[in-house]
Amino acid sequence: MTPRTEPTKSATSVASTTPTAPTAPTASAPDVDVLRYSAFTTRPDGGNPAGVVLDAAAVADDDAAMTAIAARVGYSETAFITERDETARRYRLRYFSPLAEVAFCGHATIATAVALAERDGPGELVFDTASGEIRVETTADGDGPPRATLTSVPTRSRPADPGTEIEPTLAALGWSADDLDPALPPHVAFAGNDHLVLAAATRERLADLDYDFDALDAVMRRRGWTTVHLVWRETADGTTGNAAFHARDPFPVGGVVEDPATGAAAAAFGGYLRVLGLVDGPARIHIRQGEDMGRPSDLLLDIAPDDPRARVSGQAVPIPETER
């Protein structure tokens, strides 16, 4: 998850393992208390960093200010609690990348839930987002940081169009049709945002990600996608129950080369697996992401064939000043 700071045609030339601040935002960034957490990890140098503003009342109606704060923080997303009902543990939550608002962000949801659990104690939380109601269960067993499990809005998935969606995306990635796993067809999947799902045929293909930032950004903007969810199935026997996948998520539309952990895409991927009939009972999927960026992340995805929602779980930890 590296904000893009200069023009480039290659993701490789700007990718790094440490978030860096983008160029100065055009709007002023008011002073608010921003917490910094890394989600889907137990280590601050792993996972996906997110900014968390537990009290954003001062900027609740100022989109430009929240965008400027997100740009100043420099992470792929910063979450803002703009309204609250502390008694009901219900909050209005908005998400901003360094460039614009995002309807839903999984890792920032996990980070916000853990921050609230550490402040107020574990239990159920309800977040009202632009995508709909997101319920999150937080738990703490005294062994490691709190864990949060979000339940997505109802998911859906449809086949991607070869001419307008698959071909230009493969061209931007520098991939060919032969690089794809024929058992996992390209789809556009939704769990609050749209994500193109492409399955690589080999781990080597997934690891070798050197894409055309501007070209992929253009395709994604035309199609309204938040990320391209690139996956490789570690188990090769055709089963999906309790399987393991590796994932990578380019995010140029957010001004970010790549996310090291993408909870929203993981939830959408759950819908993809359900629609394709790749689960015939309750299944837990382990998604390993961020390894190729040096920020390993672990996401647990729970899906059932008779429930259109997906559940995504992970831990989160504060990021010390010395590691920001």
How is this fold's topology laid out?
Elements: E1 35-39, E2 48-53, H1 63-73, E3 78-85, E4 90-96, E5 101-102, H2 106-120, E6 123-129, E7 132-139, E8 147-151, E9 156-159, H3 162-173, E10 187-190, E11 194-199, H4 203-207, H5 213-223, E12 225-233, E13 244-251, E14 256-259, H6 263-275, E15 283-289, E16 297-304, E17 307-318
Parallel strand pairs: 2-3, 4-6, 11-12, 13-15
Antiparallel strand pairs: 1-2, 1-17, 3-4, 4-5, 6-7, 7-8, 8-17, 9-10, 10-11, 12-13, 13-14, 15-16, 16-17
What does this molecule look like?
This protein is an alpha+beta fold and 324 residues long. The protein has a domain at 156-317: Diaminopimelate Epimerase, Chain A, domain 1 (Roll). The chain has six helices and 17 strands. The chain has helices at 63-73, 106-120, 162-173, 203-207, 213-223, 263-275, and strands spanning 35-39, 48-53, 78-85, 90-96, 101-102, 123-129, 132-139, 147-151, 156-159, 187-190, 194-199, 225-233, 244-251, 256-259, 283-289, 297-304, 307-318. Strands 1-2-3-4-6-7-8-17 form an eight-stranded mixed barrel. A hairpin with an 8-residue loop joins β1 (35-39) and β2. α2 packs across α6. The longest helix is centred in the middle third of the chain and has 15 residues, at 106-120. It is globular. This is Phenazine biosynthesis protein PhzF. The active site is at 77. Residues 10-28 have a biased composition (Low complexity). Residues 1-28, 138-163, 305-324 are annotated as: Disordered. InterPro entries: Phenazine_PhzF-like (IPR003719).
* Name of the CATH class of the domain at 156-317: Alpha Beta
**Oligomer classification:** single chain
N- and C-termini, Cα separation: 13 Å
Write out the strand line-up for the largest beta sheet, numbering strands in chain order: 1-2-3-4-6-7-8-17
Based on DSSP secondary structure assignment, what is the total number of beta strands? 17
The secondary-structure element order is EEHEEEHEEEEHEEHHEEEHEEE
Distinct helical segment count: 6
Which percent bin holds the helix content? Answer: 10-25%
Q: Which architecture name of the domain at 156-317 does CATH use?
A: Roll
Mean pLDDT: 90
Look up the CATH topology of the domain at 156-317. Diaminopimelate Epimerase, Chain A, domain 1
Q: Considering the protein shown, what is the CATH homologous superfamily of the domain at 156-317?
A: Diaminopimelate Epimerase, Chain A, domain 1
